[in-house]
Inverse folding.
């Protein structure tokens, strides 16, 4: 019989596995600072030498980084999703913007469907809490807090889908959106959307999720992102029309 003796596991290996799981599941996020060594050792119930061994291994593997005088942080594990050259292409070609929105529509629709099916009560409570804050935060076109909550709402749906590959892939995509690579959300929303319309769309998503209705949740996400796509199309058309009008004005002025 192929039985083997069970080897006792080092405490540091248990610490490594726990931190790995937190990073994999998106509980610990890139750039997040770990508690101080003494506090973390107490929380984990291990000695400080065992903790140091675990942190050293995770740093060697590129999951954690140590910053002198600041502490230990989760590494930017999302940063390698796209090369700088490809990000530059995304930022300079309109077709990438609309492909990005189509991709988000498909992925977020699937995530919402999964969240309605597989999300825990705690997941749905997180989504409800964020939505409640959105109702109080104001217009995302002019409020940094409201814009941040908008992104958190969508990220929470990804978290509730309980698919770690989808989670990290979409967090990487959201990071590019946050940096303005695809489009400036504030400018677009300010020009062509209203807070009431956006809030109603998010409310429809939240209502479907809380009711655990997968098809309604997916449809609500798709409707929302179709609206964003149309708003962006209208915004770009308005910019082109304004440029043409400016050229006409300059031409008329030059004739006088």
């Amino acid at each position: 019989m192929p039985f083997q003796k069970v080897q006792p596991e080092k405490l540091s290996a248990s610490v490594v596995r726990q931190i790995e799981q937190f990073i994999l599941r998106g509980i610990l996020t890139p750039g997040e600072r770990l508690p101080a060594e003494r506090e973390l050792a107490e929380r984990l119930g291990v000695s400080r030498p065992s903790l140091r061994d675990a942190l050293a291994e995770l740093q060697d593997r590129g999951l954690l980084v140590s910053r002198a005088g600041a502490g230990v942080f989760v590494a930017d594990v999302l940063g390698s999703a796209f090369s700088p050259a490809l990000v530059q292409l995304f930022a300079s070609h309109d077709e990438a913007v609309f492909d990005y929105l189509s991709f988000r529509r498909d992925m977020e629709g699937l995530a919402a469907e999964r969240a309605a099916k597989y999300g825990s009560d705690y997941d749905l409570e997180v989504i409800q809490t964020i939505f409640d804050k959105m109702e109080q935060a104001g217009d995302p076109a002019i409020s940094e807090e409201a814009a941040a909550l908008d992104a958190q709402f969508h990220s929470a749906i990804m978290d509730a889908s309980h698919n770690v590959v989808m989670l990290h892939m979409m967090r990487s995509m959201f990071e590019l959106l946050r940096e303005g690579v695809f489009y400036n959300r504030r400018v677009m929303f300010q020009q062509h959307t209203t807070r009431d319309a956006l809030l109603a769309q998010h409310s429809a998503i939240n209502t479907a999720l809380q009711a655990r209705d997968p098809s309604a949740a997916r449809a609500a996400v798709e409707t929302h992102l179709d609206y964003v796509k149309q708003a962006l199309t209208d915004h770009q058309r308005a910019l082109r029309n304004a440029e043409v009008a400016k050229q006409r004005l300059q031409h008329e002025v030059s004739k006088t």
Q: What stands out?
A: The chain has a mean pLDDT of 86. The CA atoms of residues 92 and 182 lie 9 Å apart. The two ends are 100 Å apart (CA to CA). The first helix runs from residue 11 to 24.
